[in-house]
Amino acid sequence: MKTPVSMKRHLLLLPIIVLLIISLGTYTILSQATTPGDVNSDSSIDIVDALLVAQYYVGLNPGNFNATAADVDGNGSIDIVDALLIARFYVGLINEFPGQTPTPTPDNGGYSFTGVLNDGYIDGSRVAYTTTATFDGSIVTITFDGGAGFEWAWLYTPDHHTMTNTGGNIWSATLSGYSAGSTLEYYFTVRKNGQEANNNDARHIWIVGTGSPDDTPAPTPTQPGITPDPTTVPGDYVLVWSDEFENTIGPDWVFETGNGDGGWGNNELEYYRQENAYISNGQLVIEAKQENYGGCNYTSARMKTQGKKSWCYGRIEARIKLPMGQGIWPAFWMLGDNITSVNWPACGEIDIMEHINNETQVHGTIHWDSDGYVNYGNSTSVNAADYHVYSIEWDSSAIKWFVDGNQYSEANILNNINSTHEFHNNFFILLNCAVGGNWPGSPDSSTTFPGYMYVDYVRVWQQQ
Hints:
mainly beta; Jelly Rolls; ten-stranded mixed beta sheet; 6 helices; 3 domains; Type 1 dockerin domain
């Protein structure tokens, strides 16, 4: 295994410290330091400060020693880690000490906060931490020193981020689009060594905000109040699964990434990324952005329950507010579980809702194989920029499409009529927002980016 570059730099400091500990003897400090790391009160933080801490740690009394200034990681003890942190600060590998009081940073009037992770709780093999930071600026970088053995880390905020391992035990994520002085609430979920972690596994966090311009965050969606409460579910149905998207994206979703085969078979223009799906104000947000990534000019997200959850028959519904614009193609749909063995269209496809461009209608369609590709569907008028409940009711006889409880289409599948046997198997759910493709065409100068697809919930009901 290769030693990360940051770790190599860290270790290179050890022999220097060991050699100079002996040469310094009992260095006398003339006054108490007032700045973390400046243990000899000479108004600078340098290698001498690191060496004095190392002396103290090995029992060579450095004289008038300021323990407050030396405990730069804020853990209540003075050890070799404090010495190494001061040395790393001196050579420019870090610009903040963990565990200290927030101090302004010179970067565009930014503000930084450092502190020890706290309020951890254990959930099976995961451990989550929550705290709060206030900052000034639109870009915030959160860095997490997890200690050894971490396999991955998620950062949950009003957005949802996968943290990136930046070397050694350090994980980092960058957030954007927050206003000056706002409060950011977040927590981590981490997995260590394939088993239960504990509160002591997370060492410290660093949060740094800057005033650099960046993307505007997803606006808080308005809820016009014109959508009826989904109490139109027939009385003989019971709720068997749902994701309410209150705090996190549930565990039954997996993300597809990339541009697929031939733009997912439709000549779509986006590159799907998990980072484009997150929780905001108790709703799932799928964000379509105009940016260069993976050889594409746009990014978005596509998520599915394949391999996690699937169903045969029931009422499948979601409350959704759609983005508008030329070349924008959001969808709430289903595919047959057996797609990996029989391929499309033999697996069957049920489009509960599709919308393209600036249309004032949504579409509901089924696709299947009957000695060749066939489809059947209808559309209904709707203001897609408002919230609506899109649903199907599906049994052994028919598939019916609804908007806000009002039926607008029906497909007969009784006794496999017209070779519709596909629709008597299990199907999984998909949510995505495509950009471009054969059907909507490409975005143009009138298209506004980013575009936001809001999903309040997804629910599956089945008859008792």
